[in-house]
Q: What sequence folds into this?
């Protein structure tokens, strides 16, 4: 009986470990976006040109800092060109159906396919 319990627990722990590894490798779950941590809301980026070609989180969405971006498209990757709160400018490609953290981004300058791109915000 003790051997059965030990084997059962060992198999259960291995199964849990492989389940977690499988989740980390899934491209469609947006885990990279979740890894940004601390976000509490999301909004569709919409047409950047309608906002003067720059989205500034503090004025477009007062009190929010951009934490991550998600590309829901199935046909192409997109890029996001942004400025961080430290003044760094970055241009990042986002693969299809994938999310990525944007470290402390406060402005998005340009984005391809911005109508479909979703951005996540930190709770400040």
A:
């Amino acid at each position: 009986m003790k051997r059965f319990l030990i084997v059962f627990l060992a198999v259960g722990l291995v199964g849990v470990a492989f389940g977690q590894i499988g989740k980390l490798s899934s491209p469609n779950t947006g885990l990279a976006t979740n890894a940004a941590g601390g976000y509490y809301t999301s909004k569709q980026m919409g047409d950047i040109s309608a906002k003067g070609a720059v989205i500034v989180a503090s004025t477009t969405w007062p009190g929010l800092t951009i934490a991550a971006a998600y590309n829901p498209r199935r046909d192409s990757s997109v890029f996001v060109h942004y400025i961080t709160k430290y003044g760094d400018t970055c241009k990042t490609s986002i693969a299809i159906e994938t999310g990525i953290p944007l470290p402390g981004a406060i402005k998005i300058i340009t984005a391809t396919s911005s109508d479909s791109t979703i951005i996540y915000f930190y709770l400040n």
Observations:
- The chain has three helices and seven strands.
- The helical segments are 2-25, 31-35, 57-60.
- The first strand starts at residue 39 and ends at 44.
- The mean pLDDT is 75.
